[in-house]
Amino acid sequence: MLLQLDFNSERPIYQQIRDQIVLGIAQGALSPGEKLPTVRALADEAGVNMMTVSKAYQLLKQEGYITTDRRSGTVVSAREGTQTVPEQTVQRLKLALSELRVAGWREERVLDLCRELYEQEG
Amino acid sequence: MLLQLDFNSERPIYQQIRDQIVLGIAQGALSPGEKLPTVRALADEAGVNMMTVSKAYQLLKQEGYITTDRRSGTVVSAREGTQTVPEQTVQRLKLALSELRVAGWREERVLDLCRELYEQEG
DNA sequence: TGTTTGTATTATAGATTATAATACAAGAGA
DNA sequence: TCTCTTGTATTATAATCTATAATACAAACA
Asked: Is the pLDDT assigned to residue A64 strictly greater than 90?
């Protein structure tokens, strides 16, 4: 579990941790059923407070990405079929596409980038 | 200039204003050369502080979306050709696509959504 | 000469973020 | 049983961020 945190970023650390784990799952670096580091281990490794990692895990849990058990630890959730996507994701996508459009990117080029990013494995 | 603000959102108001103006430009509701409301007018309309709008305008200015002049007001920038896109935009897109992927969305469906959102006019 | 423009300043209040230290219930393993 | 580890909870604290309020300023314009 290699986390790259930007302590100067406007984005809070616990959200950065959340994002990176989502990226990790999407890229296959983290597989369903795989155990995540303990909050203490990850906090140590990243040089942040235990509760900061705990907060990230609670976010991920709430969003269904992981399940935590006080006894067995934290595990990547198994997902089946095609889930409905939270409004947050659609808004995020819409904003990014708008920024590309305003930057003068034509549809074909935008879709090429989307394809590239989607297919990206690690 | 119709702003829809969510005062309960985790996203700061000045960033919501910034986002909505970017969306407005992308959708053609705001055209290059068009004058934006004054900070006071928009603040009044949205029911927020003058400086909150000013902060949004400064953000947009810094990102090149608008140009402000103390004498003539605020105007949507004209853009030519295809600009390079800030890292922020790519990261935003990457994260959204990852969330879709983990939700079980296949490439074709993701690209369909991107197409739909890109082409969306108002 | 006023008015309007974006911006700056100062003060203030509240919320959020992150840390530190400590504790707990409950399962795992010895 | 005893000990360790697990995620979580609590309390206190500090720093930062967000938003408001009131006021002011230089510059252009009618």
From this structure: yes
CB A64 within 8 A of CB A77: yes
Question: Within a 13 Å sphere around the CA of B45, how many CA atoms are in the beta-carbon half?
Answer: 13
Looking at strand D, which nucleotides approach a protein CB closer than 7 A?
Answer: 5-11, 17-23, 26-29
Token pair for B87: 């890292």
Q: Which residues of A touch B85 (CB under 8 A)?
A: 99-100, 103, 105
User: pLDDT tens-digit profile of B1-17?
Assistant: 889 999 999 999 999 99
| Mean local confidence (pLDDT), A97-117 | 98
pTM for the full predicted model: 0.94
Domains of chain B: 13-76 (1.10.10.10), 87-121 (no CATH)
Eight-class DSSP state of A67: E
Give per-residue burial for B33-56: e unless 16+ CB within 10 Å, then b.
eeebbebeebbeebebeeebbbbb
